[in-house]
Amino acid sequence: MLFGLSLAFVTMLGFQAPPTAQTANGFRTPDKTAPADPSKGLSPEVRGDILMARKMYREAIDTYREGPKDSPVLANKIGIAYHQLLDLQMAKKQYERAIKMDPHYSEAINNLGTVYYAAKSYRRAIGEYKKALRERPDSASFLSNLGTAYYARKQYKEMTEAYEKALAIDPDVFERRSSTGTTLQERSVEERAKYHYFQAKMYAKAGQMERALLCIRKSLEEGFKEHEKYIKDPEFAGLQSNQEFKLLMATEQKVI
Predict the structure, then answer these.
(1) Can you tell me the distance from the alpha carbon of 213 to that of 255, in angstroms, rounded to the nearest whole number?
(2) Domain residue spans of the chain
(3) Cα 130–180–123 angle (5° rounding)?
(4) Are 50 and 16 spatial neighbours (Cβ–Cβ below 8 Å)?
(5) Which residues 6+ apart lie within 8 Å of 70 measured at CB?
């Protein structure tokens, strides 16, 4: 079973700070005192950001293109807009253009990796994520993407290592839900039940028991058959006396 394509993480690196209000995900939206016409006094990049926040991706592409042609930041943002439109060929072209202008642009390198991941070219995705991490080894989102690509290749040991590093940097990295920004985080994975087992194991090891229980429930609802792992795996030792955990183990879950 395959998760739907999700472009799910935001880091606002490279965005300007305009005289406008911000939405929860960091993109601009005009405040009450801003001119009615957002084009007045704002750069193409800022106007494009506003259009992205409004999910007007084609309009954002046209607006970003009014800016400097030699800007890797704008090329990357154009790529994200195409990515949101699921035009992966054009997104890839723009990410590669951004990287050509700035070979150290980690966000664009990561985003190129998400294109390869979407095309199920997992080995190439891993290569791009590793390149991005060489530029920014402290990026939880890059590490999360790397772990997901390892999972797709059934390299579970490497996946666990990447995920645990990501979680240590940002305890909420797997809970991000924003859909726009300068960095994309891929969450499409196959075999959801086993994926949520691994997530539960990771959260339990990190002491995030509520999230571990939620992932256990999801894994069981999705058909995870190896219930004994939740009893025998040492990471779940701290849950053995938890009443909710006991109930989950004792109840036959309806597979969704």
Answers:
(1) 17
(2) 21-175, 192-250
(3) 25
(4) no
(5) 101
Separation between Cα atoms, residue 204 and residue 214, nearest integer Å? 11
Torsion angle of C-alpha atoms 128, 129, 134, 137, degrees rounded to 10:
170
Written as one letter, the residue type at 210 is E
CATH topology of domain 21-175: 1.25.40
Beta bridge partners of 22: 28
Cβ atoms of 109 and 131 within 8 Å: the answer is yes
C-alpha distances (whole Å) from 232 to each of 217, 225, 247 are 17, 14, 17
- Specify the 3-state DSSP secondary structure of 239: helix
- CA 82 vs CA 62, 109, 208: distances in Å: 11, 16, 36
Identify whether the C-beta of residue 99 lies closer than 8 Å to the C-beta of residue 109.
yes
**Burial class of 187 by CB neighbour count within 10 A (0 to 12, 13 to 18, 19+):** buried
Q: How far is CA 251 from CA 227, 231, 244, in A?
A: 11, 14, 10
Q: pLDDT tens for the chain, 256 residues: list them.
A: 333 333 433 333 334 434 444 444 445 555 555 555 545 689 999 999 999 999 999 999 999 999 999 999 999 999 999 999 999 999 999 999 999 999 999 999 999 999 999 999 999 999 999 999 999 999 999 999 999 999 999 999 999 999 999 999 999 998 875 555 566 676 666 688 899 999 999 999 999 999 999 999 999 998 888 989 999 999 999 999 999 999 999 887 666 5
